[in-house]
Design goal:
Blueprint: E1 27-32, H1 39-50, E2 56-62, H2 67-75, E3 83-87, H3 92-98, H4 101-114, E4 119-123, E5 140-146, H5 153-156, H6 159-163, E6 166-170, H7 175-178, H8 182-193, E7 198-200, H9 210-225
Parallel strand pairs: 1-4, 1-5, 2-3, 2-4, 5-6, 6-7
C-alpha cells in the first residue's frame, strides 16, 4: 500500500520520474472534485485540445462502473487503447491517495501499450472537498468545482480547494441562473490559495478549456525541461 498524506509540497514530483533509459516519463496530472462538477467533461475537452500535438492517455476512476471511461469512448476523444478504467470498489479517495496500486498499474500499462507518452490524465471518481492525490501517483493536481454547487465553496476550503496545483471553477455560464457571485468566488479562492492559480471555465464554448490546457502545457514544458538525476 502506498501512503502519502502530505499535500503541501506543490513542486514535489513522484520519486520514479524517469524511465529505465533515463528519459523523463509521461507527466501525470490528476483531476479531482465533487460529483457533477465537470471533471469528465474537462478531461474530454483537454483531450480534444491537446491530442493533435501531444501523445496522451487517460485513466478514469469509478466505484463500481466504467461510466466515465465509456463516456470518453463514446465521445471518441482518444483511441480506445489510450483510455483505461479503474473500478475502485471503495471511496474514490482511497484509490488516488491511500492505495494507489490499481491506478499505478493502469498508468504503467498505458505507457507500455501506447508509449512513449507525453501526458497521462488521471480522473478521480466524484468525491468531496477533501479529495487529494498521492504524489506517488500524480505530479500535479487539478481540482474542479462548479458554480452550481454554491459560491461559498471556495470560502469553505478543504484540501482540494486550498492545495491543488490548479483550481478550476467550472460552469460559469450557470452563474446568473443559480445566483452565484463569480467575483466573490474569485476573492474567496484567492484568499484560500494565496499565489496558487485559479481559472474560471465554461465548457459550453469551444475555447472554454483553454486556460486549463495552457496550464497543462506549461507544466509539461517544465516537466520535460527538468534535468535527469545525477548518480
Amino acid at each position: 500500500m502506498h501512503l502519502d498524506h502530505d499535500h503541501t509540497h506543490h513542486g514535489a514530483v513522484s520519486a520514479d520520474a524517469h524511465r529505465p533509459d533515463g528519459t523523463r516519463r509521461a507527466l501525470r496530472v490528476g483531476l479531482g472534485g465533487p460529483v457533477g462538477s465537470g471533471k469528465t467533461a474537462t478531461v474530454a475537452a483537454l483531450c480534444r485540445a491537446l491530442r493533435d500535438t501531444l501523445s496522451l492517455a487517460v485513466v478514469t476512476n469509478d466505484i463500481y462502473t466504467r461510466e466515465d471511461a465509456e463516456f470518453l469512448l463514446r465521445e471518441a476523444v482518444l483511441p480506445p487503447e489510450r483510455i483505461q478504467a479503474v473500478e475502485t470498489g471503495a471511496c474514490p479517495h482511497t484509490a488516488i491517495r491511500d492505495d494507489i496500486s490499481a491506478n499505478l498499474e493502469a498508468v504503467e500499462e498505458l505507457e507500455e501499450a501506447v508509449g512513449p507518452l507525453d501526458l497521462i490524465l488521471v480522473e478521480s471518481g466524484g468525491d468531496n472537498l477533501t479529495a487529494t492525490f498521492s504524489r506517488g501517483l500524480v505530479d500535479a493536481q487539478v481540482f474542479v468545482i462548479d458554480v452550481a454547487g454554491g459560491d461559498d465553496i471556495p470560502r469553505k476550503g478543504g484540501p482540494g480547494v486550498t492545495t491543488a496545483d490548479l483550481l478550476v471553477v467550472n460552469k460559469t455560464d450557470l452563474a446568473p441562473y443559480v445566483g452565484s457571485d463569480l467575483g466573490r468566488m474569485a476573492r474567496d479562492a484567492a484568499e484560500q490559495r494565496g499565489e496558487l492559480p485559479v481559472v474560471f471555465t465554461s465548457l459550453r464554448s469551444a475555447e472554454g478549456v483553454g486556460p486549463v490546457a495552457d496550464w497543462v502545457r506549461a507544466r509539461l514544458a517544465a516537466w520535460t525541461a527538468a534535468p535527469a538525476p545525477t548518480a
